[in-house]
Amino acid sequence: AAGVIQSPRHLIKEKRETATLKCYPIPRHDTVYWYQQGPGQDPQFLISFYEKMQSDKGSIPDRFSAQQFSDYHSELNMSSLELGDSALYFCASSPQREGPVNEQFFGPGTRLTVL
Amino acid sequence: AQKVTQAQTEISVVEKEDVTLDCVYETRDTTYYLFWYKQPPSGELVFLIRRNSFDEQNEISGRYSWNFQKSTSSFNFTITASQVVDSAVYFCALSGRMNYGGSQGNLIFGKGTKLSVKP
């Protein structure tokens, strides 16, 4: 079965650089979520999209932006990177079915290291 | 406010022992969903179970079982006859508020419990 694809899997950047993380949801999934997991921490919700529109916003820094494209893939853009941005970034997708809440399928994550 | 508390930071057991991971949640919603995820050392998040607030039946899946008690706002997870492959960080999570448009809410995670199963 197809899973959520995230690219790249690993990324190393210098401080003040920019980074773009990509997420390809499971086919026919219309909702995408981004989470950030710092070392030894729990995943923290950043932002979500439903049918290409931003649907909810969590603790996402102003330096970060994201969007969902017509093919439902999503990109997380991170600018002016700081050391504290080093983390595992997860994308999750979910289908819109009957019933209010569905299982979120997580991608393998992108490990970002800022030097 | 919504919150998930996993009071056990780390648990260490010997293989074949039973182990229970505790999860206590707070929410004002009458409809909500609870989840358990496993995160092995490789880092991916593996879905284990989802439970809605209207279904308090306990569930068993192989060596895994879950006990949901609304009266105590708890959703505990038991591994029977633990194995070395069960070593991982386990997260309990609660669904957030509903999004506009009918999509599901984001997940609120507990801090996780690191389980080490020794041979």
Description:
The complex is a heterodimer of chains A (115) and B (119). Chain A is an all-beta fold. Chain A is built from no helices and eleven strands. In chain A, strands 2, 4, 5, 6, 9, 10 and 11 form a seven-stranded mixed β-sheet that branches. Chain A has a four-stranded antiparallel β-sheet with strand order 1-3-8-7, with no helix packed on it. Chain B has strands at residues 3-5, 10-14, 19-21, 24-26, 33-39, 46-52, 59-61, 64-69, 74-79, 88-95, 107-109, 113-118. The radius of gyration of chain B is 14 Å and the shape is globular. The chains are: A mainly beta (115), B mainly beta (119). Chain A binds chain B through residues 30-31, 33, 35, 41-45, 48, 50-51, 53, 55-56, 58, 88, 90, 94, 96, 100-106, 108-109, 111, and chain B through 31, 33, 35, 37, 43-45, 47, 50, 52, 91, 95-96, 98-112.
Radius of gyration of chain B: 14 Å
Order of helices and strands of chain A: EEEEEEEEEEE
Q: In percent terms, what proportion of residues of chain B is strand?
A: over 45%
Can you count the beta strands of chain B? 12
Number of helices of chain B: 0
Helix residue percentage of chain A: under 10%
Order of helices and strands of chain B: EEEEEEEEEEEE
Q: Which features characterize this protein?
A:
heterodimer; A: 115 residues; 7-stranded mixed β-sheet; 4-stranded antiparallel β-sheet; B: 119 residues; 50% strand; globular
Summarize the structure.
Chain A has 115 residues and is mostly beta strands.
Map the helices and strands:
The complex is a heterodimer of chains A (115) and B (119).
Chain A: E1 5-7, E2 10-13, E3 19-24, E4 31-37, E5 44-50, E6 53-57, E7 64-68, E8 74-78, E9 87-94, E10 105-106, E11 110-114
Parallel strand pairs in A: 2-11
Antiparallel strand pairs in A: 1-3, 3-8, 4-5, 4-9, 5-6, 7-8, 9-10, 9-11
Chain B: E1 3-5, E2 10-14, E3 19-21, E4 24-26, E5 33-39, E6 46-52, E7 59-61, E8 64-69, E9 74-79, E10 88-95, E11 107-109, E12 113-118
Parallel strand pairs in B: 2-12
Antiparallel strand pairs in B: 1-4, 3-9, 5-6, 5-10, 7-8, 8-9, 10-11, 10-12
